[in-house]
Amino acid sequence: MGGRPRDPAIDKAVIAAVVEMLTHDGVVSVPIEAVAERAGVAKTAIYRRWRTGDALLADAVATFGPRPTSPGGSLRQELLDLLTSLRLLGRLLPVLSLLERSGPATAARVAALVEDARGMLRETLSRALARGELHRYPCEETLLRLVLAGVGEPEAALDLLVDGLCGRP
Q1: What average pLDDT does this structure show over 6-27?
Q2: At what angle do helices 8-20 and 53-62 cross, to 10 degrees?
Q3: Which of 44, 46, 43 is closest to 15 using CA atoms?
Q4: Where does 40-169 have alpha helices with state H?
Q5: What integer pLDDT is reported at residue 82 of this predicted model?
Q6: Dihedral (Cα; 52, 53, 59, 63), 10-degree rounding
Q7: What is the average pLDDT value for the chain, to the nearest integer?
Q8: 85, 67 in Cβ contact below 8 A?
C-alpha cells in the first residue's frame, strides 16, 4: 500500500496530448516519447497508467464519443443536437479507418463510438417517424455518414438533410 496517489492531472494531460496529436497532427501512431513531451510528463508516468500504446489510444478515442441528447420537438432540432454532440467524433474522421487498424482495444473503442452514434441517430429517426415528419425510414449507414460529414457546418448540413429526408423541394 505504498506510493503516492496518482495525480489525475497527469492522466488528463496525457489524454489531451494524444487527442491533440490525433486531431491536429493527423497521426494514428502515438509514440510514448512524443506524448510525454507534449504532455510535459515522464514516459514512466505514461507506462504506469497504460501498458500499451493501444490502451492509451483507446482511452483517448473514447473521449470523442457522442454526448447524449434529449428528444426535441422536431427532426431538425434533434439532428442539430446530434450533429453538435458528434462534433468531436467528426474531427477524427480523417484518421478513423486507420485507428480501427491500430490495435484491438482502439478498434473496439472506435466501433463503440460509431455504434453509439448510430443508436442516437436511430432513436432520432424513430421519433421523427412517430411524429409523422418522415414518410419512410432512410438508410441508417448512409445517413450516419452524411451526418458525420456535416459536423463542421451543422446548420448548412442540417438544411440539406432535413429537406431531403422530409421530401421538401
Answers
A1: 88
A2: 90
A3: 46
A4: 43-49, 53-62, 75-85, 87-91, 96-99, 104-131, 140-149, 154-165
A5: 85
A6: 170
A7: 85
A8: yes
Task: Identify which of 38, 152, 28 has the alpha carbon closest to the alpha carbon of residue 90.
Answer: 152
Q: DSSP per residue over 93-108, as a string? A: GGGHHHHTTS-HHHHH
Mean pLDDT across the stretch 34-43?
95
Q: What's the confidence (pLDDT) of residue 36?
A: 96
Rg, Å, the chain Cα set: 19
d(CA 129, CA 135): 7
The three-state secondary structure class of 151 is: coil
**Which residue type sits at 169?**
P
* Residue located via cell numbers 454526448: 67
Given a contact cutoff of 8 angstroms between Cβ atoms, the answer to whether 138 and 146 are in contact is no
Cα maximum dimension of the chain? 69
Is the CB of residue 125 less than 8 Å from the CB of residue 140?
A: yes
Closest CA to 14 of 27, 31, 2, 1: 31
Quote the crossing angle between the two packed helices 75-85 and 154-165, to the nearest 10°: 140
Q: Cβ neighbours of residue 57 under 8 Å, at least 6 residues apart?
A: 18, 28, 30, 99, 102, 103, 105, 106
CB atoms within 10 A of CB 113: 22
